[in-house]
Amino acid sequence: MKLLAEVDKPGSLIDNYVTQLSFVLSRKAASLVSLQARLASFQHRLKEQEILSRKRVPR
Questions:
Q1: Number of domains in the chain
Q2: CA gap 44, 29 in Å, rounded
Q3: Hey, CA dihedral for 58, 48, 43, 39, is it positive or negative?
Q4: CA atoms of 8 and 45, how far apart (whole Å)
Q5: 40 Cα distance to chain centroid
Q6: At 6, is the secondary structure helix, strand, or coil?
């Protein structure tokens, strides 16, 4: 939002705004991809634990 406020000022360089916004969005996207991978790994481990706990039924 800070970048958007800057572009509204008279004499601002829209190309600079677009470049900076693209960089910020790329970083955010990379962070989301990383988070999705971590979540998938966590979900996989949860399923493994669930399967193992079913096999260890106490008698």
A1: 1
A2: 23
A3: positive
A4: 48
A5: 13
A6: helix
| Interatomic CA distance for residues 40 and 34, integer angstroms | 10
> Which pTM value belongs to this model?
0.63
Radius of gyration of the chain (CA): 23
Give the alpha-carbon dihedral of 32, 33, 35, 39, to 10 degrees: 130
Tens of pLDDT, residue by residue, the chain (59 residues): 776 777 777 777 888 888 888 999 999 999 999 999 999 999 999 999 998 888 876 66
- The two tokens of residue 45 are 């481990």
Range of the domain at 43: 2-6+14-55
